[in-house]
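so the lab meeting is tmrw and i was supposed to have these ready like two days ago... anyway. pasting both below. for each one the top line is the aa sequence and the line under it is the structure tokens. i havent really looked at them closely yet so no promises
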Amino acid sequence: MNLSIEEIEKEFSFKTSRSGGKGGQNVNKVETKVELNFDIANSAVFSERQKERLFLKLKNRIASDGVIRIISQNSRSQYKNKLNAAENFFKLIENALKPERKRISTKPSAAEKEKRILLKKKKSEKKSLRKFNPETE
């Protein structure tokens, strides 16, 4: 990915809230849950082609307003959750922008062809035995 990480990080907006789960009294008073919001539609970092590709590949992760939201609440530390959310975001973007490899069509091997022909002959023989033949009865 030839995009500048610093430029992308400037467009992040974080929202914090109280996280559930373990943590004792810490859970009740410290906002450790982090929600990373990134507005792909209005981003100056990505080109129009890249935006189209992101919308196509990440359509299930992007809200109707063009914002991708990533929530992290694994750690008891807000800072670690921010780093985790950013890391998850970059993995998503990298996978979405990775060019797809072109499929190379292959030819069936001789053994596969032989097997296919044998199966066809067996099936044909089975079906011919089902036919009514007055000469045999």
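ok protien two:
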Amino acid sequence: MELIFEVRDAEEGGFWARALGAGIFTQADTWEELRANVLEAVRLHFEPERPPRLVQLHYVRDELMVVEAA
């Protein structure tokens, strides 16, 4: 089983991550800290059950650009 996390930039800085299809959410100031927090949250969430074999972090970045009319 693979668990996919949507990762986005947090407005106040850092990142947040939300698991798709599972009630897991975490955040961190750095990418390395986020990775550690995601793994810890997955272990805690699936503790009595079997945890997923793979965790995928899917980083989504939104950028708005103004297009000036010619």
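from a quick look at the 2nd one: The longest helix spans residues 31-45. The helical segments are 31-45. will dig more after coffe
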